[in-house]
Amino acid sequence: MGTTYNNRLQRFxxxxxxxxxxxxxxxxxxxxxxxxxxxxxxxxxxxxxxTEIRNLSVRLRIAKLLLANKSFIDIQRELHxxxxxxxxxxxxxxxGGDGLRNVITKLPIRYAMPKRLPPGPIEYHLPQALVAITxxxxxxxxxxxxKKMGSFxxxxxxxxxxxxxxxxxxxxYYRETYKAKKKKPF
Length: 186
Prior knowledge:
Elements: H1 8-13, H2 17-33, H3 37-47, H4 50-67, H5 72-79, H6 83-94, H7 98-106, H8 126-183
Helix pairs in contact: 3-8, 4-6
GO molecular function, one term: sequence-specific DNA binding
InterPro entries: Trp_repress, Trp_repressor/repl_initiator, TrpR-like_sf, YecD_YerC
Pfam family, one: Trp_repressor
């Protein structure tokens, strides 16, 4: 059996059932506490690596597309993911998936800015005009959210570099520790 420098799974498995439940309790309630999109974004940025955030985003979109009855091949092409990844998410949905279904049905709809209001007097097109104006108001709010989320995404690149540096430092530490243990006479 080979030596690994980082045995995270085994460390977690050494915890008692009660300790594992305590960890999960905190995680679930931490997500419950954040209410606004920017609070959630900041929480995720602090909790997860950039790669973990990207992977979770892609998995959620795969689930959303699967629930919208998109084909596996269309999803693979659209998101540039492997068939294994799409299949994995599909299996999760088919073997329960209530959590994903529940969240996806509650995701807000992203509206596009209306091209133009209907021509002619507005009184003759009031329903269409109201829909267009309402959508425009949502787009303005959406644009503000996109700007805030854009800064979140930009910060992920810095986080990605930091995560890589920390991983390299940890790897070097464990390599040095392993070398020192090998040289040490028993």
